[in-house]
Amino acid sequence: MIYVVIAFLWVSICLYVITGGADFGAGIIELFSKKSYRNQTKKIMSKSIAPIWEANHMWLIIAVVILFVGFPTIYTTVSTYLHIPLVLMLIGIIARGTAFTFRNYDAVEDNWQKLYAQIFFYSSLLTPFFLGIIAAATISGSIDTEAKDFLSLYIFSWLNPFGVCVGFFTVSLCAYLASLFSLHEARFSDALPIMKKKARETAIYVVVTGILVFVSAHYSDIPLLKWIFSKALGIIAITLATISLLFTNEAIKKGHFLLVRIYGGFQIIMILVAATYQHNPNIILFANGGHLSLFDESAAPKTIEALGWALLLGSIFILPFLFYLLMSFGNQSRKDPE
Amino acid sequence: MDDFLAARSQMAMSLGFHIIFSCVGMVMPFLMAFSHYKYLTTKDEVYKGLTKAWSKGVAILFATGAVSGTMLSFELGLLWPKFMEHAGPIFGMPFSLEGTAFFIEAIAIGFFLYGWEKFNKWFHWFCGVVVGVSGLASGILVVAANAWMNSPAGFDYIDGKYLNIDPIKAMFNEAWFPQAFHMTVAAFAATGFAVAGIHALMILKKRNVNFHTKAFRISAGFAIIGALLAPISGDVAAKSVAVRQPIKLAAMEAHFETEKGASFVIGGVPDEENEQIKYAIKVPKVLSFLAWGDFDAEVKGLKDFPKDHWPPVAVVHYAFQIMIFFGSVMMLIGLIYLIATFWKKEWLTKNWYLKMFVAAIPFGYIALEAGWTVTEVGRQPWIIYGIMKTIDAVTPMPGIQYSFYFFTLIFISLSLIIIFLLLRQLKMVPKLYDPTDPNYNPKNKK
Predict the structure, then answer these.
(1) How far apart are CA B335 and CA B341, in angstroms?
(2) Interatomic CA distance for residues B89 and B91, integer angstroms
(3) Do residues A178 and A25 lie in contact, with contact meaning Cβ atoms separated by under 8 Å?
(4) Which of A54, A57, A76, B268 is the most exposed place for a label (fewest CB within 10 A)?
(5) Which conformational region is residue A149 in: left (phi greater than 0), alpha (psi within -120 to 50 degrees), or beta?
């Protein structure tokens, strides 16, 4: 059962990065759109995320619940030493979620809309940035539980060049995903060339920030290259991701936008595979060389058993529903291009 | 402000706000679905407009409830890591099921809001019902988790270790039913009264009277059912507290001396130092009856417990009194409503009748917050009753007061924006939602 639970944890994180990431990306893309076509971008973006954004957000909650029920030590370690970035990410989540809702359901359209939009943009930027920082902090061995002073305990555990670069990388990934996903929505609109351009631009950002991640890892003595390329699966994952990048380009040219969505999701999964497989089952590395492993830190067997069943049962209810939701609104936009 | 106090205040504030958002989110979908049902069976377009108007409220409040709930799931670890380390695996079961319920709710909301004229009408209606049912289920599950803190079960506590964990037993702890029942009923009463009051106000102002009368009837109906069931569920809750947490019961009533045939205390000023209550009205033997169903039963007093295990008596006592007061007023309004509906139809058109509902807008929420104060403050100094003290659970990170100030600011601004948004929805009723109004033209928006 522990494998079921870990699988669910991994899948929830993946889906959060993909669907939630596309959500965040939508805000980022809109922020960096020229005023002249911002409105168009907004329409496309909100059409592609509005019906499902509440659901996208749920994957994070599922992951958090799995952590605190199944792996309490890992959850409490993260929440203690990464308190500050977690709070900053939370603020981003709150601001973004509410601003998005207010923007969509406010009965009147006036200057308030501008305020919601600003909040929505900047929190879309902030949240994935700190999500990246948090992820980087867990695996880069920067958490030092033996430190004595406030700065080393609660600040330098996450605020370092590598973390910041991973933060930027995450932001670029989100923007890239959103631009890929939106192509399908934009296929009948005049904005299509703009969105295609966005997809190319964001792909470049992903590559540039990706290189930055490796450079910063090198200077921070984090053997990232070795981690990723020392195991066959890591090499395969990265290779597949690169190849699918080429396929994506091809699919964009040919206008197979649903395929583009699939490739986009696939690339993220491959990146996550490469990033997480090396340390599996250890998900937190400490400065002193110690680590917390998913297997050693799991809760009592009965809890894992119950959690696993709850997750399986839940997915029987959720997945068909969710699938139907995605299908219905996917078809909808085909019938009704406006 | 020290870190411990700051952590407690931040948690109290987050819960205090979340409770309001989530109660509205739990109950409004039912109002919405009811009105939707009326539309489908009567074909009266006003009900359709009303359903849409309410569904916007549901969307706004669901989103705030969802983010404040997400925040709480992080805050449990951010503020109380030692508690979560031990409690997570034991009381996590309801949370994992709640995740499912909440997920279904989010999906159903997507279907409902974007599904007008796109699906089979009864499927669409059913989605609205699913929003309500899953919202209710997640509320009940979360309360079950809280109940575990009051009535720890499903593990053996031996030498500071938590052994033989049984998450199912933990979920169905002794307090879950009384607490969940009372909470659900209270949520219906509070939300029902708040919504009914707002529409009553609009009727008084003579705006879209037909529309608001329909809205008023539905919401008042729900409110009254809640208000009349609340005392019953409260009695169940009180009896359960008497058995499990006699010290909480004693604090609720500022009952210092153990006695047989204990009197029910109304009002008064508890004096913890001298261990007595002043200026109170005492109704003989009633406390014994309420707690144990026997006028001569013995009720333990605070003096029977070590003083360092006492919760803050005054806070718990006042909160309990406030809850009882507003609960009784709402029950009274419920009775007046019944009399008006069945025997004195002429009351229904009277201004005083509508004004009464306007005045009652905040009552349910005041009672709800007071009730939660009783539950939570009454559990102190324990975070897991009798097992772990709250002070031993707090995070080692310093500077929590800044986080408290910051989140206070966030919650206050969120609440203000929501009130502002709901007022705007209300203002737009003639244009967007009431098809009988001459200004009606929903196409103007967007």
Answers:
(1) 10
(2) 6
(3) yes
(4) B268
(5) beta
> Are the beta carbons of A300 and B89 separated by less than 8 Å?
yes
CA–CA dist B442, B446 (Å, integer): 9
- Please tell me what DSSP assigns to residue B347: G
Burial state string for A144-168 with b = 16 or more CB within 10 A and e = fewer than 16: eeeeeeeeebbebbbebbbbbbbbb
The reply to whether residue B119 touches residue A328, judged by beta carbons under 8 angstroms, is: yes
| pLDDT tens across the length of chain B (446 residues) | 788 999 999 999 999 999 998 898 889 999 999 999 988 888 888 888 888 888 888 888 888 888 888 888 888 888 898 888 888 888 888 888 888 888 888 888 888 888 787 888 888 889 899 999 999 998 999 999 899 998 888 888 888 888 788 888 888 888 889 999 999 999 999 999 999 999 999 888 888 888 888 889 899 999 999 999 998 998 899 888 888 888 998 888 888 888 888 888 888 888 888 888 888 888 888 888 888 888 888 888 888 888 888 898 889 999 999 999 999 999 999 999 999 888 887 777 788 888 998 998 999 999 999 999 999 998 988 998 888 889 888 888 888 888 899 889 988 888 888 888 888 888 877 777 877 777 777 765 54
Using the beta-carbon criterion (under 8 Å), do A307 and B62 form an inter-chain contact? no
- Closest residue of B to A155, CA-based? B397
Q: Do B77 and A79 touch (CB under 8 A)?
A: yes
Chain B neighbors of A98, CB-CB under 8 A: 63-64, 67, 414, 417
Handedness of CA A123, A126, A132, A135 (dihedral sign): negative
- Whole-angstrom Cα distance, residue A278 to residue A293? 13
Distances in Å between the Cα of A303 and the Cα atoms of A69, A71, B97, B420 are 8, 10, 13, 44
Distance separating alpha carbons of residues A56 and A252, to the nearest angstrom: 25
Query: With helix as H, strand as E and coil as C, how does B375-402 read?
Result: HHHCCCCEEECCCEEHHHCCCCCCCHHH
In whole angstroms, give the CA distance from residue A105 to residue B101: 24
Say how far apart CA B441 and CA B434 lie, in whole Å.
9
Residue among B7, B112, B220 nearest A79 (CA): B7
Which H/E stretch holds residue B281? strand B281-283
Let me know: does B395 contact B81? Beta carbons within 8 Å: yes
Cα separation of A83 and B74, whole Å?
Answer: 10
Q: Which residues lie closer than 8 Å to B423 by C-beta, 6 or more apart?
A: none
The DSSP symbol for A142 reads -
Residue count (chain B): 446
Residue B409 contacts A, CB cutoff 8 Å: no
Provide φ and ψ at A287, rounded to 5°: -60, -35
CA A282 to the chain's CA centroid: 20
By CB atoms closer than 10 A (0-12, 13-18, 19+), residue A273 is buried
Q: A93 is written with which tokens?
A: 């989540």
Q: Which amino acid is at B245?
A: Q
Cα distance between the two ends of chain B: 49
Amino acid code (one letter) for B351? N
- The CB density around residue A42, as the number of other CB atoms within 10 Å, is 18
Question: Residue B254 corresponds to which amino acid?
Answer: A
CA distance A265 to A263: 5
The answer to whether A187 and A336 are in contact (CB under 8 A) is no
Length of chain A, in residues = 338
